[in-house]
Amino acid sequence: MTIRTKTSNPLDTTPAPVQARLAAAWTSFMFLYIYVDFFNLYKPGVVDGILNGLVWRFEVSSTLLTVMLASVAIPALMVMLSMTLPARANRAANLVIASLYIPYSLFNAAGATAEWTFFYGLSIGIEVLLLAFILRSAWTWPRTVAVPAGALATAGRQDLRP
Protein backbone atom coordinates (compact mmCIF):
# COMPACT_ATOMS: atom_id res chain seq x y z
CA MET A 1 0.00 0.00 0.00
CA THR A 2 1.35 3.36 -0.99
CA ILE A 3 0.64 6.42 1.09
CA ARG A 4 0.74 9.63 -0.84
CA THR A 5 1.46 12.80 0.97
CA LYS A 6 1.00 16.15 -0.56
CA THR A 7 4.40 17.72 -0.97
CA SER A 8 4.57 21.38 -1.63
CA ASN A 9 5.95 22.56 -4.90
CA PRO A 10 9.05 24.69 -4.26
CA LEU A 11 7.58 27.24 -6.67
CA ASP A 12 4.27 27.59 -4.82
CA THR A 13 3.59 31.09 -3.65
CA THR A 14 1.15 32.41 -1.15
CA PRO A 15 -1.12 35.21 -2.28
CA ALA A 16 0.35 38.64 -1.69
CA PRO A 17 -1.53 40.89 0.73
CA VAL A 18 -3.82 43.46 -0.90
CA GLN A 19 -1.62 46.28 0.36
CA ALA A 20 1.45 44.83 -1.36
CA ARG A 21 -0.45 44.29 -4.63
CA LEU A 22 -1.68 47.89 -4.54
CA ALA A 23 1.78 49.28 -3.78
CA ALA A 24 3.27 47.19 -6.61
CA ALA A 25 0.61 48.41 -9.05
CA TRP A 26 1.18 52.06 -8.08
CA THR A 27 4.94 51.52 -8.45
CA SER A 28 4.44 50.07 -11.94
CA PHE A 29 2.13 52.97 -12.78
CA MET A 30 4.78 55.46 -11.63
CA PHE A 31 7.53 53.86 -13.72
CA LEU A 32 5.33 53.88 -16.80
CA TYR A 33 4.11 57.40 -16.11
CA ILE A 34 7.64 58.78 -15.81
CA TYR A 35 9.01 56.87 -18.80
CA VAL A 36 6.17 58.00 -21.07
CA ASP A 37 6.99 61.61 -20.18
CA PHE A 38 10.68 60.94 -20.71
CA PHE A 39 10.20 59.27 -24.12
CA ASN A 40 7.89 62.11 -25.12
CA LEU A 41 10.95 64.37 -25.05
CA TYR A 42 12.20 62.55 -28.15
CA LYS A 43 9.27 63.77 -30.24
CA PRO A 44 10.42 66.39 -32.74
CA GLY A 45 9.90 69.91 -31.47
CA VAL A 46 9.17 69.03 -27.84
CA VAL A 47 12.57 70.07 -26.45
CA ASP A 48 12.58 73.21 -28.64
CA GLY A 49 9.15 74.09 -27.24
CA ILE A 50 10.37 73.61 -23.67
CA LEU A 51 13.43 75.77 -24.39
CA ASN A 52 11.03 78.43 -25.72
CA GLY A 53 8.99 78.24 -22.52
CA LEU A 54 6.11 76.03 -23.69
CA VAL A 55 4.97 72.58 -22.57
CA TRP A 56 2.34 71.31 -24.96
CA ARG A 57 0.38 74.58 -25.31
CA PHE A 58 0.99 75.89 -21.83
CA GLU A 59 3.51 78.52 -20.86
CA VAL A 60 6.10 77.21 -18.40
CA SER A 61 5.32 78.80 -15.05
CA SER A 62 5.53 77.97 -11.38
CA THR A 63 1.83 77.05 -11.46
CA LEU A 64 2.30 74.63 -14.35
CA LEU A 65 5.32 72.98 -12.74
CA THR A 66 3.47 72.71 -9.42
CA VAL A 67 0.51 70.99 -11.13
CA MET A 68 2.91 68.66 -12.94
CA LEU A 69 4.70 67.85 -9.68
CA ALA A 70 1.39 67.16 -7.92
CA SER A 71 0.29 64.87 -10.76
CA VAL A 72 3.41 62.74 -10.18
CA ALA A 73 3.50 63.09 -6.39
CA ILE A 74 0.01 61.70 -5.80
CA PRO A 75 0.69 58.25 -7.33
CA ALA A 76 4.12 58.25 -5.66
CA LEU A 77 2.45 58.82 -2.29
CA MET A 78 -0.07 56.08 -3.06
CA VAL A 79 2.80 53.56 -3.07
CA MET A 80 3.52 54.39 0.57
CA LEU A 81 -0.09 54.96 1.60
CA SER A 82 -1.13 51.59 0.17
CA MET A 83 1.24 49.91 2.61
CA THR A 84 0.53 52.05 5.68
CA LEU A 85 -3.09 53.23 5.77
CA PRO A 86 -5.68 51.24 7.71
CA ALA A 87 -7.79 48.98 5.47
CA ARG A 88 -10.92 51.15 5.27
CA ALA A 89 -9.02 54.39 4.49
CA ASN A 90 -6.67 52.49 2.17
CA ARG A 91 -9.55 51.04 0.17
CA ALA A 92 -11.27 54.42 -0.13
CA ALA A 93 -8.10 56.27 -1.12
CA ASN A 94 -7.25 53.72 -3.81
CA LEU A 95 -10.78 53.75 -5.23
CA VAL A 96 -10.91 57.56 -5.38
CA ILE A 97 -7.40 58.26 -6.67
CA ALA A 98 -7.41 55.48 -9.29
CA SER A 99 -10.86 56.64 -10.50
CA LEU A 100 -9.57 60.20 -10.91
CA TYR A 101 -6.42 59.11 -12.75
CA ILE A 102 -8.27 57.21 -15.50
CA PRO A 103 -9.65 60.36 -17.20
CA TYR A 104 -6.38 62.15 -16.39
CA SER A 105 -4.46 59.42 -18.25
CA LEU A 106 -6.87 59.53 -21.18
CA PHE A 107 -6.28 63.30 -21.46
CA ASN A 108 -2.68 62.56 -22.51
CA ALA A 109 -4.01 61.62 -25.95
CA ALA A 110 -5.48 65.10 -26.49
CA GLY A 111 -3.96 66.71 -29.54
CA ALA A 112 -2.04 63.60 -30.58
CA THR A 113 -1.57 63.14 -34.31
CA ALA A 114 -2.19 59.86 -36.12
CA GLU A 115 1.58 59.28 -36.27
CA TRP A 116 1.70 59.01 -32.46
CA THR A 117 -1.48 56.94 -32.01
CA PHE A 118 0.31 53.69 -31.18
CA PHE A 119 2.70 55.38 -28.69
CA TYR A 120 -0.14 57.03 -26.79
CA GLY A 121 -2.52 54.10 -27.22
CA LEU A 122 -0.02 51.66 -25.75
CA SER A 123 1.05 53.90 -22.88
CA ILE A 124 -2.46 55.02 -21.95
CA GLY A 125 -3.79 51.50 -22.39
CA ILE A 126 -1.26 50.06 -19.94
CA GLU A 127 -1.84 52.94 -17.49
CA VAL A 128 -5.59 52.33 -17.58
CA LEU A 129 -5.09 48.56 -17.13
CA LEU A 130 -2.93 49.21 -14.06
CA LEU A 131 -5.53 51.62 -12.68
CA ALA A 132 -8.28 49.05 -13.37
CA PHE A 133 -6.23 46.47 -11.45
CA ILE A 134 -5.95 48.93 -8.56
CA LEU A 135 -9.70 49.56 -8.64
CA ARG A 136 -10.50 45.85 -8.74
CA SER A 137 -8.06 45.03 -5.93
CA ALA A 138 -9.45 47.79 -3.72
CA TRP A 139 -13.08 47.01 -4.60
CA THR A 140 -12.70 43.29 -3.84
CA TRP A 141 -10.68 43.84 -0.66
CA PRO A 142 -11.33 40.78 1.54
CA ARG A 143 -13.62 41.41 4.46
CA THR A 144 -13.68 39.62 7.78
CA VAL A 145 -16.95 38.55 9.29
CA ALA A 146 -17.81 40.51 12.40
CA VAL A 147 -18.11 38.30 15.48
CA PRO A 148 -20.47 39.52 18.20
CA ALA A 149 -18.66 40.68 21.31
CA GLY A 150 -20.63 38.25 23.49
CA ALA A 151 -19.41 35.27 21.46
CA LEU A 152 -15.80 36.37 21.82
CA ALA A 153 -16.17 36.89 25.54
CA THR A 154 -17.68 33.47 26.18
CA ALA A 155 -15.34 31.63 23.81
CA GLY A 156 -12.26 33.09 25.48
CA ARG A 157 -13.49 32.61 29.03
CA GLN A 158 -12.10 29.71 30.98
CA ASP A 159 -13.71 28.20 33.99
CA LEU A 160 -11.32 29.02 36.82
CA ARG A 161 -13.32 27.21 39.55
CA PRO A 162 -11.81 24.01 40.93
Could you walk me through the main structural features you see in this protein, from its secondary elements to its overall organization?
By secondary structure, the protein is mainly alpha-helical. The chain has helices at 18-40, 46-51, 62-84, 87-107, 117-139, 149-156, and strands spanning 54-55, 58-59. Strands 1-2 form a two-stranded antiparallel sheet. A hairpin with a 2-residue loop joins strand 1 and strand 2. Helix 1 (18-40) packs antiparallel against helix 3, helix 1 packs antiparallel against helix 5 (117-139) and helix 3 (62-84) runs antiparallel to helix 4. It is elongated and about 80 Å long.
**Helix count, per DSSP?**
6
Q: Rough shape? A: elongated
How many strands?
2
Secondary-structure content class: mainly alpha
- Order of H and E elements: HHEEHHHH
How far apart are the first and last residues' alpha carbons, in Å?
Answer: 49 Å
Sheet with most strands:
2 strands, antiparallel
Mean pLDDT: 87
Across the major sheet, the strand order is: 1-2
Per DSSP, what share of the residues sits in E-state strands of 2 or more residues?
Answer: under 5%
Helix fraction, binned, reads: 55-70%
Low-pLDDT residue intervals, each spanning 5 or more residues: none
**What Rg do the Cα atoms give?**
24 Å
